[in-house]
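Handout, tutorial session.
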Amino acid sequence: MTKKLCVIGLGYIGLPTAVMFANHGVKVHGVDINEKAVALIRNKQLHIEENGLQDRLNTAVDSGHFTVSTAPEEADVFIIAVPSPINADKTANLDYVRMATESIVPLVKKGNLVILESTVPPRTVEDVMMPVLEKTGLEIGTDLYISHSPERVIPGKVFEELVNNDRIVGGINEESSRLTEELYRIFVKGNIHITDATTAEMVKIIENTYRDVNIAFANELAKISDQVGVNAWEAIKLANYHPRVNIHLPGPGVGGHCIAVDPWFLVELQPELAKIVHLARKTNDSMPEYTARQVKSFLDKKNIAHGRVAVFGLSFKANIDDMRESPAMEVLKHLEELGIDYTAYDPHIKENNFSRQTQNIEEAVKHADLIIVLTDHNEFKAMNPEAFADQLRGKHIFDTKNCIVRPVWEKAGFEVTVLGDSKNVTTV
């Protein structure tokens, strides 16, 4: 059994993974360059939101199996779980992967295993990590083993999926794969599928690109439905009763650290071939502006010259605090460009990120002409608008996630508009 594990990167994937191993008896040292995050974790406080993480962190720290700092330590296995964002020109930024790999070069010894969990373009292990690790002087594949095992979890259900999801393991050779499978078997109950490192990298990109293309199709259907008088949500639901159809749902855009980023890796690698992928990315990236223009059109129809909008939801997904690549932030940018005033509220975002964000729903809706829902948090689904209806200038709501309980809002006197549903707009 692994004696010691060093996890580089203590974010939405690295921290849950580290405490999972620690709570299964492995000595784990966690590393992050964010000094504030390290200080919080050391004191059993969270810098991210994830169901079940607090209790598991408490157990890991109290047991003595989990320590943290800003510098890596010697270990038997190193797991790299750092961000792999895109640059402004939509190319892969692998600086964090490269720096994390370089940070362990002085510590790596014969027999060690290095695993990359970050989602990266194909050939990153071979072209970026291996040249760096060759600086150790160890023979790659004989003295030092390397694998790619991409995370496959969804925020809000990370621990459940870490255990139960099938896992892909791609080693640079058979022994690298064997050692990696042996490590994850400490807690993984799902099947572990063995392949090579480059194929494993490609698998993760395929998974997220499939979802992005599917969502782009749904968003096109929503736009078309807005023009021809159809409820896209109803049509998609009915179409999905077909045994071989599984259309995703539309919305104000696509966010997160995976779906909104990973398809660009394929476009960068093969721009002349990734035509559908590129079009899907452009379609989904266009939705925040489309959403903002829908707001502008609504205000114009109501002859509201200097409108104010209450924005509900800033995170990219329901019931989490993750704002990475959130389409909500792009919607806000386009509202500003259109000269529309707004306040923003999200019950899961505890720290104010900009001056127009409020921690109070009453303040958010005060004097607003329109509420726009950008994230389908449970809090919004269960909301009783009668509690604050008298604070608004206009009783109008634009639901881009089709998540509110429509009869409740109609009973409170609201005009309800849903993205992709021009069939049943309610006028009170």
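The second record follows below. Compare its token runs with those of the first.
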Amino acid sequence: MAIDLRAAFENEPPTLDFIWPGFLVGTVGALIAPGATGKSFWALEAAMSIACSVAGGDLVGLAPAHTGRVVYLAGEDPEPALIRRVHAMGQHLDQAAREAIAENLTLEPIMGQGKNVMDDRQLRRLIGDYAGARLIVLDTLSRIHNCDENSNGDMARLIGQLEKIAVGTGAAILFLHHVSKGSARDCQTDQQQAARGASALIDNARWCGFVAKMTEDEAQRFSDRSYDGEPIGNDRRGYFVRFGVSKQNYDTTPLDRWYLRHAGGVLLPVELLNVKQDGGKGRCRGQA
């Protein structure tokens, strides 16, 4: 149905419903990072934040305006690994938050099941099973299709299928994806074009976030010690990752935050001091 332009001109527009700043309900977004950086941990903690209807469940500090049902389809990790991950996160949650998350979050291992959203029958089943969800996380994109990731046509069709899921369920769809080897080598994993494969993959998504390891230069510029300002240093930089946004179509609210990796891999926000203002880019050895 076409938009009534006269009404749009004259009436107050609807309020946009964001999952978190910039990521609109009913759209497709991406979270990209090199392998073993922490994107699955970040995404699962973010899923818990959206699923938790009481205070105390927002481990990543997203401060969502609304909560609701969340579905997380885990295609890379077996069930025992996922259980260990949840247990580690649970050590930072009180009982009320645990109960709320358990009520609203579905965490489903799909590794080895041959999920393929390009199959219309599977697509219809997925929409039927998860209708009414607020957020659906697909971890990772390569596990849910059989297309050529280097083909713009194939990737445009893949995003089109994900948009069908968004429209059919009413949920925001977040897919996790890896960066290209060149982007990791050149310290450009925080760029919109860093994603592996055809450009249509991110061009057609409405939001794109990233998780990046701390570089050697950043380890010399930043400190987590307010009492003496000692730089983090190369020996400890592997414990720190940065989350940020490289593309958002509907909002300009900045989201850029450092996290410290705790026991079990859990990411928690950390405040860092800039102790060296040299503007150098540094190297990112070990990001890939």
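Points raised in discussion: The radius of gyration is 19 Å.
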